[in-house]
Design brief:
This protein is mostly helical and 270 residues long. It has two domains: 12-94, Chitinase A, domain 3, CATH 3.10.50.40; 109-250, Serine Threonine Protein Phosphatase 5, Tetratricopeptide repeat (Alpha Horseshoe). The protein is 63% helix and 4% strand. The protein has helices at residues 12-18, 33-36, 39-50, 64-70, 77-84, 113-132, 136-154, 162-184, 188-201, 206-218, 222-235, 240-269; strands at residues 26-31, 89-94. It has a two-stranded antiparallel ribbon with strand order 1-2. It is elongated and about 75 Å long. The termini are far apart.
Length: 270
């Protein structure tokens, strides 16, 4: 675990304890309840990091009902109990290394809002570069990191007002780029999930319909794919030629699949 001195994301008392230690030292500290009241929240964040989740509690798909229940629970029974009845705690700390501010590269969750917004175009551009190189999984990581930054900043804005909408537009672009990568990685059902969610909230997103149509085509959902392709043309007639090409390819694939199945059943009963 890393602690950034002066960053209140961790317990303030930990910073005091570390200041008394030498590199390589292991020490045990008993801390009164006056210093441990925030530990359940800190522990929740650390556990989320260990699980590969965003410690700031953002989920790409979280319904209002789930958020309502999350308000009353930390999601871990032991932490809920500790939150109800705070206790003195013993911390065993080993100081492994000390880095100066100029040497330390912070994770995106540790950045302030301005730093997060500055990081987004850099991450977006890096994701685009990796996509062009065919490094789709690496690109998704960059897009995901940028999304976490934007979503975290957006939670501090009032929904549907101008600043919130500007961030929402940037978020939608990144999700669509993320879905393009998933399509190349053949993660078709995840593409369907994300694009459907986008369409529900923003029914005018042409690219969302196009990517969902492509994903539907790949999993043999011919009817759904054609409906989405038709919607693309309705929203953007300039896409007509490309859509016609996609539909021809889909029909050819469906015909080949049908012929393969006929041959399979013929051999089965011959």
């Amino acid at each position: 675990m890393e602690i950034i001195i002066g960053n209140m994301f961790k317990l303030e008392v930990w910073e005091t304890l570390l200041a008394s230690m030498r590199i390589g030292e292991v020490a045990e500290f008993w801390c009164d309840v006056t210093h441990t009241g925030l530990y359940p929240l800190v522990s929740k964040s650390l556990r989320r990091i260990a699980e590969g989740k965003d410690p700031t509690d953002w989920h790409m798909h979280t319904c209002g009902l789930a958020n309502m229940f999350a308000y009353h629970t930390l999601g871990y029974e032991d932490l809920d109990e500790l939150q109800k009845e705070p206790q003195p705690l013993i911390f065993i700390i080993e100081l492994l290394k000390v880095e100066s501010p100029s040497m330390y590269k912070r994770e995106t969750w540790a950045l302030n809002n301005d730093e997060k917004l500055k990081a987004v175009p850099v991450l977006h551009g890096e994701g685009n570069r990796l996509f062009k190189l065919g490094r789709y999984e690496d690109a998704t990581n960059k897009y995901r990191e940028a999304l976490i930054c934007l979503k975290n900043v957006q939670t501090k804005e009032k929904p549907w007002e101008v600043p919130w909408m500007k961030l929402e537009k940037m978020i939608n672009t990144l999700i669509l780029n993320y879905c393009q990568c998933l399509l190349r990685m053949e993660e078709y059902y995840e593409v369907l999930e994300h694009t459907t969610d986008l369409i529900q909230h923003h029914p005018g997103l042409v690219k969302a319909y196009f990517l969902r149509a492509k994903a539907n085509a790949e999993v043999w959902n011919e009817t759904e794919a054609k409906k989405d392709f038709e919607k693309v043309v309705d929203l953007d007639p300039t896409m007509s030629r490309q859509v016609k090409k996609e539909i021809r390819m889909l029909e050819m694939r469906m015909q080949e699949k049908e012929e393969e199945e006929k041959l399979k059943y013929k051999n089965l009963f011959s």
